[in-house]
Inverse folding.
């Protein structure tokens, strides 16, 4: 039954792997600095206005030495006052390269970073609703290739053949809001080209800002998604939410299986298989109100073109589909799950998956235990560092206090301190006759307390005539014992 207006559906977007929706503008080292493993977007203009040494600043900025200016900004900027956003860097290569080029003022590497679409006011990254809608459009369009008589010969005009004239496009009946990444945030990774050929090295394709995701975090990354839809007719079929879920499932699940079989089932892809195990399990367990979708850059030609029509051209006539682009060489880009919360949820019929479910569960459990162990070790190491820092500060305070004390009071305190070695205590004992009468008694009490604690006070027999016995006797005499 068709309705006369758009109906809002309760949908959740589960981000399974890194999603990168880029902009035409790249981040250069004049727009960011890296501190404590975080890329900090900075307001350079504001910093320049606040910088006190104007002449030096203007002279530096007028220089044509890009690397020197970059190093100057990195060393002089105060991030606390001009940071717009902080993005974790999850790529050791970028961290080490940044540190090197800043120190050496290397001009050969610009260290450009491709950022995400970002709210201009809050500076929070987001996934545009139009990107998700585009992925949905591809899956729906794929269902009508035959009905619209679209072939590889007339594929240039497929959109009009399937969806009609632009001013009557039925996809206007589907609207999706942007998804703010404020809750889980984003991170910086390096895109690397992964080849079917084990002997071929992975080709770097730049640093990218991506959404936080299940594969990298090990925890669900779920956002509310405002999706409004009014059912519409297309080539004699009613396109509603159930149709949409089915179209997405048929199209994208088959693409995931094909990609897994072709690339990730290979012997040299073992680490990739292990890293994407949580995503593979999520996809295998999709329920009837859930479906798969692929969004953003590096979705690859199979996921953005139609089946039986696909005829991409590659440079020099090479076959397409021989490489994948992976985040940090491990994580496929763009995979997400849509969950229609108010739709009936039931298990889907068993499918022929290119992986064993029990093996996935075993890998995930092993990853979880490893992550927990690493976390415990990190927490223990942090506690040790905290304790050491507390002890260092206390020792510095103790030394400062000793330094400012009266010499006799300082020596009395030293004699009471169990950390002071015995040779130093003997030196202080030898000076006791030079102390004032009041401080002589204080020092005698301090020495008595120390020697009682060490079991060297109540001496008997021959021990009374030893060097220690003589010292004890003298202290007892001072104390009138």
């Amino acid at each position: 039954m068709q309705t006369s207006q758009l109906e809002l559906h309760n949908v959740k977007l589960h981000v399974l792997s890194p999603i990168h929706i880029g902009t035409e503008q790249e981040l250069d080292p004049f727009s960011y600095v890296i501190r404590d493993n975080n890329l900090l977007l900075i307001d350079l203009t504001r910093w320049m206005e606040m910088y006190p040494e104007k002449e030096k600043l203007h002279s530096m900025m007028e220089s044509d030495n890009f690397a020197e200016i970059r190093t100057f900004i990195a060393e002089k900027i105060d991030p606390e006052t001009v940071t717009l956003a902080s993005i974790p860097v999850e790529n050791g290569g970028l961290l080490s390269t940044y540190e090197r080029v800043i120190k050496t003022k290397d001009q050969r590497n610009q260290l450009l970073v491709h950022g995400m679409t970002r709210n201009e006011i809050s500076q929070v990254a987001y996934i545009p609703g139009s990107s998700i809608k585009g992925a949905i459009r591809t899956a729906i369009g794929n269902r009508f290739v035959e009905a619209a008589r679209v072939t590889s010969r007339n594929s240039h005009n497929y959109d009009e053949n399937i969806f009609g004239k632009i001013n009557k496009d039925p996809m206007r009946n589907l609207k999706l809001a942007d998804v703010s990444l404020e809750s889980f945030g984003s991170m910086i990774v390096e895109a690397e080209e992964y080849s079917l050929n084990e002997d071929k090295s992975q080709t770097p394709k730049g640093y990218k800002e991506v959404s936080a995701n299940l594969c990298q975090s090990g925890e669900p990354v779920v956002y509310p998604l405002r999706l409004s839809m009014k059912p519409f007719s297309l080539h004699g079929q009613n396109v509603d939410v159930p149709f949409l879920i089915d179209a997405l499932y048929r199209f994208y699940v088959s693409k995931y299986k094909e990609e897994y079989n072709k690339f990730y089932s290979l012997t040299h892809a073992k680490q990739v298989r292990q890293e994407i195990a949580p995503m593979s399990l999520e996809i295998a367990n999709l329920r009837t109100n859930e479906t798969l979708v692929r969004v953003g850059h590096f979705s690859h030609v199979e996921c953005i073109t139609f089946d039986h029509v696909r005829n991409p051209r590659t440079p020099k006539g090479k076959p397409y589909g021989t490489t994948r682009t992976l985040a940090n060489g491990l994580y496929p880009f763009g995979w997400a799950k849509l969950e229609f919360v108010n739709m009936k949820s039931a298990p889907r019929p068993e499918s022929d998956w290119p992986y064993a479910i029990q093996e996935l569960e075993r890998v995930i459990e092993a990853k979880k235990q490893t992550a927990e162990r690493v976390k415990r070790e990190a927490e223990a190491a942090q506690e040790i560092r905290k304790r050491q820092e507390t002890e260092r500060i206390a020792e510095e305070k103790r030394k400062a206090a000793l330094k400012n004390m009266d010499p006799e009071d300082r020596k009395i305190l030293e004699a009471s301190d169990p950390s002071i070695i015995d040779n130093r205590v003997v030196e202080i004992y030898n000076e006791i006759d030079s102390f004032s009468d009041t401080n002589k008694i204080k020092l005698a009490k301090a020495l008595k307390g120390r020697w009682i604690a060490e079991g060297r006070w109540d001496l008997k027999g021959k021990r009374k005539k030893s060097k220690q016995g003589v010292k004890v006797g003298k202290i007892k005499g001072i104390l009138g014992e």
